Amino acid sequence: MKNQVLNLKTRVMNINKSTRSNAVTIGGILIAYVVCTALINSGNMSNLLRNLLVAMCYYSIMAVSLNLTVGILGQLSLGHAGFMCIGAFTGAFFSKITVNTINNTFIRFTLAILIGAVAAGLFGIFIGVVVLRLKGDYLAIVTLAFGEIIKNVLNVFYIGYDSKGIHFSMKDTASLNLEEGGMVVVKGAQGISGTPRNSTFTIGVILLIITYLIIVNLVNSRSGRAIMAIRDNHIAAESVGIDITKYKILAFSISAALAGVAGVLYSHNIATVQSTKFGYNTSILILVFVVLGGMGNLRGSIIAAIILTVLPEYLRFMQDYRMLIYAIVLIVMMIFNWGPACINWRKNHSLKDLTKKLMKAKKEA
Amino acid sequence: MLAGVDMSFITYLLNGISLGSVYSIIALGYTMVYGIAKMLNFAHGDVIMVGGYIIFTIMSTLGLNPILGVLIAIILCTLLGMTIERIAYKPLRRAPSLAVLITAIGVSYLLQNLALLIFGAEAKSFTSVIPVKPLSLAGGRLSISGETLVTIPLCILIMTSLTIFIKKSKIGRGMVAVSEDKDAAVLMGINVNKTIAITFAIGSALAAVASALMFSTYTNLSSTSGAMPGIKAFVAAVFGGIGSIPGAMIGGILLGVIEILSRAYISTQLADAIVFLILIIVLLVKPTGILGKKIQEKV
User: Which residue, A334, A338, A308, A294, is CA-closest to A64?
Assistant: First the structure.
């Protein structure tokens, strides 16, 4: 018996370190999922938290996918919400026009997710080709600009359909010239409303795990090592023959496509999807998840996204003060995490150090 | 003689230059802080909002002279800028730039929510602080507002005096030295911390001036009304080449003119999109902005 346990232990220890870490993350997600489902079924979960479950999933997907651009590729993007916007709109558009033709919810929603991902991915390739030759803060401002352009342009889109096909206008509903019985799907600033609410917690968790696996597999592949080489030193990477443009666009478009998936999940979770929800504030919110969770650390992104999605809701009892506290927590955490003086202080006062000192004192005594 | 010229176009152009002047004053704060501390101060736009509320309180609630209000706003904003720098940014002096960026975002949230708590969610209507009467030209067909008449010369005045200050004064040359090479500047006996604090002070004082000018024309004052002008001014700074003072002026004015003209002739809703599109095109042709220096990368 004891032998068997030892055997198991050595076998576990022999597993590749990154595989073990992934198993921990996915296991954690699954345990959280089981606990949450049990709580819902036994009626012990508050309404507040239950409404946040899907939101936690899509924010986690957003954070993990942005981490690919910011943490693993090392390029600052401030327009990630723009890709989410594209995914949300194309996915919702597809679901709305096929709600009567495709009866199977599962097939329709899967197709919507794929379409949202492909559309956002294509935009990712396009924007990547255009902007990825800029660096640092210039890249940041151009991605911010693209995010705002997507938001503002979608805000004046009017799309409807009737028996003749799809009509498009950038003025108003009347200029669509729909025949009788036609339906307006995208209504400018009002966005798309009445999308079938197919997003569930289960689907959200499955999508989160798939997203996680895609990025982990990418990072541990040859392409992933090339991407990280570009982050660490792009000149050295280029000099060993890595095609910088290709890998940058690869990472950027995958990140965009996954953001599109999050967008589809978002648009099928709420009644109305409006493009104004995807401004730079949302992009910055996602970036905060990534930076607080640790750049390049996918598990950290998920944890940060979950905590920061729940925290403002649970601070509601403080009403007006909650966002103030959120801001202060953010500043203090950043200074504590990154301030050179704080890092030194933490080194000198760490628990490990303290126990060591205690042991030493014991020995001397 | 002037009959053939479209008067409304000239009006739009002047409005654009006026708005652009405000943008360039804000952009100066961005560009100076970026040049010296190498950080994007996202909270800069919210300092403008705070300035607006200070002037509003002094004028409308206390009923004092608007000019006095502007002066007090300049002093308080300067103190606010220096406090923010001391508490939030100084501990992160040698931290990665993203950490500083997120802290700046935190400060921005903090200022917005403080304003929300103190002044409430309802937007306030700002009364113009500028006592100049509008000028009527070309037989009354062209009217130039008092705000425009004050804003444009004031912007030029600020720009020239700031350039002279940086070129001639000891502190100004210290700023240039710190922005070129921080470590070498320390060896030359320049107090880097003091220089950065002064930069923040100047930037915030300019933000207060900008708030007086901006809210006199665009009178809607709420806790988020500093955010978008802040972003636009940042775009203007990048547009002209970040770190360059004349660049901030050119970028700001171009941005203001493009914004007003596209709002007038193309679409109100798409004006922002057009501004950002032109920014992208400019950066693709000239990746460091119009007047930016090309930095050669050392291997």
Answer: A294
A240 touches chain B (CB under 8 A): no
Q: Which residues of A touch B84 (CB under 8 A)?
A: none
CA atoms within 13 A on the CB side of B73: 29
Chain A residues 120-179 with a CB less than 8 Å from chain B? 130-131, 133-134, 137-138, 140-142, 144-146, 148-149, 152-153, 155-156
CA–CA distance, B190 with B212 (Å, rounded to integer)? 34
Which of B89, B90, B95 minimizes the C-alpha distance to B42?
B89
Look at residues A86, A85, A82, A152 and name the one whose alpha carbon lies nearest to residue A118.
A86
Q: From CA B86, how far away is CA A23, in angstroms rounded?
A: 44
pLDDT bucket at B235, cuts 50 / 70 / 90: confident
pLDDT in the model for residue A319 = 66
Please report, for chain A, the start and end positions of each structural domain, with discontinuous segments joined by +.
1-45, 60-289
Chain segment A236-280, per-residue pLDDT in tens: 999 999 999 999 999 999 999 999 999 999 999 988 888 888 988
The token pair that represents A183 in the structure block = 């339906």
Asked if B107 has any chain A CB less than 8 Å from its own CB, the reply is yes
Whole-number pLDDT of residue B299: 57
Question: What residues are paired with B220 via a beta bridge?
Answer: B125
Burial class from Cβ neighbours inside 10 Å (0-12, 13-18, 19+) for residue A116 reads buried
In angstroms, the separation between the Cα of residue A263 and the nearest Cα of chain B is 21
C-beta of residue B232 within 8 angstroms of C-beta of residue B23: yes
Query: For residue A155, what are the CA distances in angstroms to A86, A89, A260, B32, B268?
Result: 12, 11, 18, 35, 12
Q: Look up residue B91 and give its DSSP letter.
A: G
Residue A80 φ then ψ, to 5°: -65, -30
Mean pLDDT of chain B: 86
- Give the three-class secondary structure for B221: strand
Show the 3-state SS of chain A: CHHHHHHHHHHHHHCCHHHHHHHHHHHHHHHHHHHHHHHHHCCCCCHHHHHHHHHHHHHHHHHHHHHHHHHHCCCCCCCHHHHHHHHHHHHHHHHHHHCCCCCCHHHHHHHHHHHHHHHHHHHHHHHHHHHCCCCHHHHHHHHHHHHHHHHHHHCCCEEEEECCEEEEECCCCHHHCCCCCCEEEEEHHHCEECCCCCCCHHHHHHHHHHHHHHHHHHHCCHHHHHHHHHHHCHHHHHHCCCCHHHHHHHHHHHHHHHHHHHHHHHHCCCCEECHHHHCHHHHHHHHHHHHHHCCCCHHHHHHHHHHHHHHHHHHHHHHHHHHHHHHHHHHHHHHHHHCHHHHHHHHHCCHHHHHHHHHHHHHHC
Tell me the ipTM for this assembly: 0.83
Residue B244 CA to residue B248 CA, distance in Å, equals: 6
Compute the Cα dihedral for A69, A191, A116, A215 and give only its sign. Answer: positive
Minimum distance, in Å, between the CA of residue A202 and any CA atom of chain B:
32
Q: What is the pLDDT of residues A33-75, one digit of tens each?
A: 999 888 888 887 787 788 889 999 999 999 999 999 999 998 8
Mean pLDDT over B133-162 rounds to 83
